[in-house]
Amino acid sequence: MKAYKNSLLSRTCQAVAITFALVVAPIAEATIYVYRGPSGEKLVTNIPMSGNGYKLLHQKDSIDNVGHLAAGRKGPTAADSPRFSVVGNKPYKRKWVNSSEYDSYIREIAMRHGVEPALVKAVIQVESNFDPQAVSRAGARGLMQLMPGTAAMYQLGMGDIFKPHRNIEAGVRHLAYLKTLFPNSMELVLAAYNAGENNVMKYNGIPPFPETVDYVQKVKSSHNIFKRVFL
Description:
By secondary structure, the protein is mainly α. It contains nine helices and five strands; from the N terminus they run H-E-E-E-H-E-E-H-H-H-H-H-H-H. The longest helix has 23 residues, at about 1-25.
């Protein structure tokens, strides 16, 4: 029995080591896949997988891009992108929209989930500038710039991710979840929304990523305005 346990421990350690090597090793000119496993775990590999409950979340051509995504960082928001950009193989043109068009959705959903409506509107303004079709260079989508993995956490599929009501619902639920992790700091909630909660925990504060530091300040500035005019 002892020998069996030692053998099992050895195989487990080997599996962990292989997974770690796949994540951190410099894989030149390789396609990297990010999957969500049957138990919700995230797997980064250069080997395509099918069946067995594995769902493809991301596919990139370099480990640097996947490392960025696996760490939870969304990078620059769509609102920071140039007017014309390319997302995947499709051109994306930012659109002008009415910033008050989604106010009723924002108020109703935010109050239902215990999040301040003015904060939600500030997040949307900084994330997408109220463009429901916005797509960032990292693949975040919609008004609240949800990454596909985050959207899936709230049962929001890719077919609905650009629908304003569904996108706001999932984004607000994510903010409400982050508030349970960082109940006494709006800054940490915002940092986690941009860079991922694991990075906030890792650095025990706002992660030292320029885009995240800038993001937090932008949302705070917008929030200061909206909380006076959007009640």
